[in-house]
Design a protein that fits this description.
The structure is a homodimer of 308-residue chains.
Chain A: E1 9-13, H1 18-29, E2 33-38, H2 43-47, E3 52-57, H3 62-72, E4 76-79, H4 93-114, E5 118-124, H5 139-158, E6 161-167, E7 169-171, H6 180-190, E8 194-196, E9 202-207, H7 208-223, E10 229-235, E11 240-242, H8 243-254, E12 260-262, H9 290-302
Parallel strand pairs in A: 1-2, 1-4, 2-3, 4-5, 5-6, 6-10, 7-9, 8-12
Antiparallel strand pairs in A: 9-11
Helix pairs in contact in A: 1-7, 3-4, 4-5, 8-9
Chain lengths: 308, 308
């Protein structure tokens, strides 16, 4: 970066989430000024993130988003904020639509008003249940797809240049989500038996550092382009394993067999057996193999206090 | 209809709108029992619609929709309710998403819970700015497309059989919308000069009686099919004219020239010059030519009191 140039500015949503918090550190490391727009409930966790220059408060009002974008004038908006629900209950529909459609639309409207045109958006590989076209795994994925339709309106009418990065499973340090690897780490620690599904479903686990590289890469690609557009890319580790294989690699890296019973549970409804194959983000590749990522994870985990 | 069979039941949203109110009369005429689910603001106009057996109140809560669907147990749901805005203001985004995405999603969730599977949905030809694929004319059309994404989730997971009828311009008696034909009728009455755009945009004007036939036809088609699906069809008059030509036909039918100045106004932003060409609803054709429709309209209008 030219040291005489002013630091570029990124506005980020979903800053308190797993990818968001890592992306903020990375952006800051690369010399960006970062602001977040977040619900008051996220404020405590954001306060721990030193690199955030400013946190704009969002309580659902478009005026808050308009003011944040107009004041901070980001070169790039990273839209990672969403409500993730693997399966929804009826009472959660309103929150799902507010978080995953309304908030993003308010953000695009604020960008239109402030003439900010570069958006990197987080999508999910679950927008395609089978390889190929749109077929949402769950209502969460359907709301993500719905948002992309609205995004296209702003691409066509407000000069927005956007990329949606469709993400598969992610992992890395400081992950508080109760996903596969967290279960394996727990099992490693406690030695207690773990009952799992038959484990033949294929997963694509991408390390969060690689995900952050992809988001930065997408921002640079967009900034090099003049025309409004919406492009959709898969951000895949390019390394695919069944859950059984992941467990075996984990055991190798940990140098310890785990007491796992495969087949103790059923697959969940609409379990994805073979993840989507989408067009890959051009010019970007994951660098951290699963083996290397697991090694780093176990090193990091051993330094953390025992989970309660 | 078999007189011994119980009358089939239709639940309708958007019952107080132009198409909705005509569809209720038609359904009733054809022997259906009709219930509406509507916001309290629509209650006064619904009270005037004799054929409505029951009006379920909707104030935004999913529980209201769930209860309505569970109690009425419709064979077919006609989803016509939407907030139409040709151009939006920022403050209207929340209402647009609530009316055009959230409400419909609540309806689908209620159908899932009650195992009601047949839905006829109203879309708009404006979901395609140019002929061909999705490119929304305005944010309204984008929210309609977004809803179809969510609909597909329920098709895939709840056995829903759905058709979306994409509608062009509509007209007919008792139309309170201030659209092209209303302006021409006013000009005919008052003789006051009317300044219009250059008028070279092509419009597809479908009579509301034909639209109602299309909705009934779609319901019957869906009921004859077992598999869950979402099909999208154009409901077009198959008669396309420029606005100038429409005005000329109007003058012929009215037997009076109108003081119109074409080119007095600019086209609006993203004016649709050539409407979408979509796959037509199989087995249905419009029966009312524009000339015949205008004749009926002028006959009806002459019997109405002068507009204030």
């Amino acid at each position: 970066m030219n040291p005489l140039a002013e630091a570029p500015r990124a506005l980020i949503t979903g800053a308190s989430g797993f990818i968001g918090s890592h992306l903020i550190e990375r952006l800051s490391f690369e010399g960006w000024q970062v602001a977040a727009i977040a619900r008051p409930a996220s404020a405590p966790s954001l306060a721990l993130l030193q690199p955030v220059a400013k946190v704009y408060r969002y309580t659902g009002q478009i005026a808050e988003v308009v003011e944040a974008v107009a004041e901070f004038k980001p070169q790039v908006v990273f839209h990672l904020g969403s409500l993730f629900l693997a399966q929804h209950d009826s009472f959660q529909i309103e929150s799902l639509i507010s978080s995953n459609i309304l908030f993003g639309t308010q953000l695009l409207e604020a960008m239109r008003l402030a003439k900010i045109t570069t958006l990197v958006n987080a999508g999910t590989a679950w927008q395609s249940f089978n390889s190929g076209g749109y077929n949402p795994v769950n209502l969460y994925a359907a709301t993500k797809q719905a948002f992309e339709d609205i995004l296209l309106y702003y691409v066509e009418t407000a000069g927005v240049r956007a990329m949606t990065l469709r993400i598969f499973d992610t992992y890395g340090p400081a992950d508080t989500r109760r996903k596969l690897l967290a279960l394996l780490v727990d099992t490693l620690r406690t030695g207690e038996p773990l009952g799992m599904s038959p484990g033949e479903q294929v997963v694509d686990l991408t390390h969060v550092d690689d995900i952050c590289s992809a988001f930065l890469h997408a921002a640079r690609l967009l900034q090099s382009k003049d025309e409004s557009r919406h492009e959709v890319y898969a951000v895949s580790s390019e390394e695919r394993h069944t859950v059984r294989e992941v467990a075996a690699i984990f055991e190798e890296v940990a140098k310890k067999p785990l007491p796992i019973t495969f087949g103790a549970r059923a697959y969940r409804d609409r379990e994805v057996m073979e993840p989507w194959q989408g067009t890959r983000l051009p010019g970007w590749h994951a660098k951290i193999s699963l083996r290397e990522g697991l090694r780093r994870l176990l090193l990091a985990e051993k330094t953390l206090p025992q989970r309660s």
